[in-house]
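Extended Data, panel c. Modelled sequence:
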Amino acid sequence: MNHRTMLLGIILVLLVVPLFARDKTDSLVMKNGDRMTCEVKGLDAGVLYVSFDYIDGTTSVDWSKVARLESSQLFVVKTEDGSVYSGTLRTPETSGGRPVRIQVVDTTMKETEINRSQIITLIATSDKFWQRFNGDVNFGITYSKGNQSTQYSLGSQTAYVRERWNAQAAFDSNLTSSTGANTSTRNSLDISAVRLLRWNNWFDSGVGSFLQSSEQGISLQSTVGGGVGKYLTHSNRASISVLGGATWQNTRYQKSVVPVETQNLAALLIYGNVQFFRFSKTTLNVTAGLLPAVSEPGRVRFNTNASYYVKLFSNLKWNVSFYGNWDNEPPAGFSGSDYGSTSGLSWTYGLK
């Protein structure tokens, strides 16, 4: 328990470390003529996130209604075709009716003009390490008097973004207890790193995951692998990507009446991620991984996570999530599946 507590503490310190705001000197002009001085925090899913000196929290702005944007802050800019740029932002003068174009000026003063509608992500970068993180923390609790049942859920995810690569980590913990039944726990930690290749929308990725599941009798399941993937769709409304590669999986099972040694498994990896966005209101995120075993032909493992977020106000969201893990050939006496759903509140930091 001490090791788990220590691990959880380290993760939470890393994931919720406070980010320091910079001066609010950016200029934002809307199509209706409204002009604002603010701090541009970033662009994601068609939403431009900005903050003001006189408004508490972060404000969401419809990116399609922005006419001008000026900022001396460095941003990583990504477009629909997979191109990536880095630099400060400004908007050149255009005649009426022409599409709005954003200029990205890099450190060598080279200027690149991009149609605003083609920009899908703006991520502020900084020389300060802690200011490069974005993510969220969520917590939920459900209680039923009838069977004295209580369910807790705790999760956090963070992303560290650079111009051509990014790293992500996600932690989830679920505990369910009820009268007359054993306490059920599930803890997972997923780590991944993605590097964009020279071919637009192609990337390579390394993945690592660690799972503990009392339902399946798994003390610790460690998975390490990697592969090559592609963004099939990457816009301000949706993002769909697939990845193919290979993994190595080591699983240690809890002691049982049926003796089971630690199992090692070499498998192919087929991974997919789907995200859909609705302006500043809802987000659906679904990931799934299929691992057909190579070392044990016929054995297949499958896992999935799905989350639906609804914005309440400022940085606070309500979410409902589903998780599942299946093994079609588990050791004798052990369950081949573990799945469930949770709901709770989520607080975002960094970009949003």
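The longest helix spans residues 2-15. This feature is highlighted in the accompanying rendering.
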